[in-house]
Write a structure and sequence with these properties.
The chain has eleven helices and no strands. The protein is mainly alpha-helical.
């Protein structure tokens, strides 16, 4: 389910950021099918087209997962939790057709979104900010809440700082960077 959600939302995010244009995705079968379902040609507003397309893709893939999984469970003859844990084949899955379409979407996203020059530039900037924040807190661990400071003895300074930063929201991280004078 994560794979389905992440890819559909990443496609929508890429469009929202204007890194992916509508004409680029028109050839993807998964998108074309979703857009046909929602009659995208009758929708004028770009935001509505984008969000409805993403929702239709999610709905189609989740429905496929439910149907395919039900068939796999029925075919495997499992009836109890112990039956499931002893079964050696995957029971929760999507169809081969949906998997092929999802793989095409993943390939598209890799080439056109994740490796987009603007996104790579932003990722490089964020990496620099996180490095600065990490080094700043390592030099002055009292910048962390006492809860995380208590982990220093057990886990070591670097692990405690890394865990602290990993738990930050984007907004909180930017606030801490500003406090450190890094942004």
């Amino acid at each position: 389910a994560d794979r389905i959600a992440y890819n559909c939302h990443d496609l929508e995010d890429g469009q929202k950021a204007r890194l992916i244009e509508p004409d680029q995705i028109a050839t993807l079968e998964i998108v074309a099918t979703a857009q046909a379902e929602i009659h995208v040609d009758t929708i004028d507003d770009w935001t509505i087209k984008r969000t409805r397309t993403a929702k239709a893709m999610l709905n189609r893939l989740v429905s496929d997962c439910i149907e395919t999984s039900q068939q796999a469970i029925a075919g495997a003859g499992v009836a109890t939790v112990p039956d499931v844990t002893q079964h050696h084949e995957t029971l929760i899955c999507i169809s081969k057709e949906a998997d092929t379409q999802l793989q095409a979407l993943e390939h598209f996203l890799m080439q056109n979104f994740y490796l987009h020059p603007r996104l790579k530039q932003t990722a490089k900037q964020v990496e620099q900010w996180l490095t600065t924040l990490f080094e700043t807190i390592c030099q002055e661990p009292t910048r962390m809440p006492r809860y995380f400071q208590s982990f220093i003895e057990v886990r070591g300074l670097k692990r405690a700082v890394a865990d602290y930063i990993a738990g930050m929201t984007d907004r909180y991280c930017l606030k801490r960077l500003a406090e450190a004078g890094a942004v």
